[in-house]
Amino acid sequence: MAIRNNVIRVLFVLTVVCGAAYAKRSATKASAPVAAAPGPATGTSCHPVTFDIIELGATADGKTDSTKALQDAWDAACGMDGEHTVLIPMGDFMTGPLNFSGPCKGYVTIQLDGTLLGSNDIPKYNQGNWIEILHVDNIVVNGSGTLDGQGASVWEDECKVLPNSLVLDFVNNGTVSGIKLVNAKFFHINVYKSKEVTIKNVTITAVADSPNTDGIHIGDSSEISVADATIGTGDDCISIGPGSERINIQGVTCGPGQGISIGCMGRFKDEKDITDITVRNCVLRNTTNGVRIKSYEDVLSPITASKLTFENIKMEEVANPIIVDQKYCPEKTCADKKGANTVTIKDVTFRNITGTSMTPEAVSLLCSDQLPCSGMELLDVNVEYAGKDNKTMAVCTNAKGVSKGSLEALACL
Ligand SMILES: *[C@@H]1O[C@H](CO)[C@@H](O)[C@H](O)[C@H]1NC(C)=O
Ligand SMILES: *[C@@H]1O[C@H](CO)[C@@H](O)[C@H](O)[C@H]1NC(C)=O
Ligand SMILES: *[C@@H]1O[C@H](CO)[C@@H](O)[C@H](O)[C@H]1NC(C)=O
Ligand SMILES: *[C@@H]1O[C@H](CO)[C@@H](O)[C@H](O)[C@H]1NC(C)=O
Ligand SMILES: *[C@@H]1O[C@H](CO)[C@@H](O)[C@H](O)[C@H]1NC(C)=O
Ligand SMILES: *[C@@H]1O[C@H](CO)[C@@H](O)[C@H](O)[C@H]1NC(C)=O
Ligand SMILES: *[C@@H]1O[C@H](CO)[C@@H](O)[C@H](O)[C@H]1NC(C)=O
Question: What is the pTM of this model?
Fold first, then answer.
């Protein structure tokens, strides 16, 4: 199997089926070993091979294009039975788009110890994303390295379609842990049509005025969990779009940014329902929104968001700590095409939400008169106004449900 100028060959010394027998594998670059060539086969499992991108020709100077070395490392690791690792060692490596497509024969770990810098040659990104993990099962991305999207120089160019940094599309059973993501050109992590993905212990940072730099966006996916993450960007820390179910967010510290959002919903035709979302044990610091549900009013096909729980959340100087907005319309062009609202929002619990709000309206439940929000619960919601000239309050329209244990001024149900 030729992977670089026909000089690198992965030799299958023994060909076996993983788990059923054992193999000795080695990879060679010309005559030098590329990867840790295992000693004589002794176990009942395959020998893991590490594909170190430096040995495959990458240059750790932050300038030389190392795309090919990374792509070759992926293609080799993905093409072998067994558990193999793509290693990005310490150092700065510049790359363009990386097409990490499966299905893979075995299990691949991408170990990121160094820093990958996303090229600013935008026309190269014809796949739409920077690092695209597509149709891969059992993928692990870990280490303590950094994915630096180098977005600052392209953010002003808002007319261009900019690439997301790390994309998991059609992934089953994935883990992303330990890594840092900074200055994505667009979203930092985008999870789409995936199942059983865990994102934990990641740090995501972009300046507060960077456009569309959502930390993690999840859409059309199920059983996704985000835990112990620190996220501060110019857009939503986490946004959960249509088609998401059984999503668990916990231990996230968010700010600056626009908070943790469900939606928006109703922007496109044939969107799928959102259900069973839990956001727990989070801190929101200096964000424009805390926890938010947003939907357009003029919707093409009906959609329901239900069983949404937000609990044990601390707000620190958040502009709009709790906000449900069924008349979301950032483009301000919705008034003239106000259709029959068909986004249903029901069974939403806000429990044990404390801290401070930068505006008097700590709670806003702005639901539609045609289809009011139902099954809403405000339980132990105690958010105080951080300013001096006014007092905390709730603004609620067309919301039905119960309030218990909350500040009287916020108990609007
Ligand atoms: C990515 O790689 C896969 C598998 O090798 C290939 O089928 C696909 O066309 C590639 N995509 C792009 C955008 O190059
Ligand atoms: C999920 O992926 C991990 C890492 O590759 C692997 O160890 C584990 O066995 C996989 N789980 C299932 C259910 O396949
Ligand atoms: C990364 O994941 C692999 C496979 O699950 C594991 O063996 C390794 O210890 C992990 N490394 C780190 C730094 O977490
Ligand atoms: C989180 O990731 C860092 C590397 O970025 C690592 O040093 C640390 O041990 C990880 N923490 C946990 C609890 O896994
Ligand atoms: C809050 O965030 C804004 C940018 O959104 C920043 O200018 C300001 O310094 C932050 N305030 C605090 C107290 O962190
Ligand atoms: C309420 O949430 C805070 C975190 O914001 C947590 O420390 C506390 O234990 C929670 N209280 C209850 C009764 O669960
Ligand atoms: C308090 O805040 C509300 C809502 O923003 C506003 O309508 C009202 O005028 C404010 N009152 C004072 C005394 O500033």
Answer: 0.90
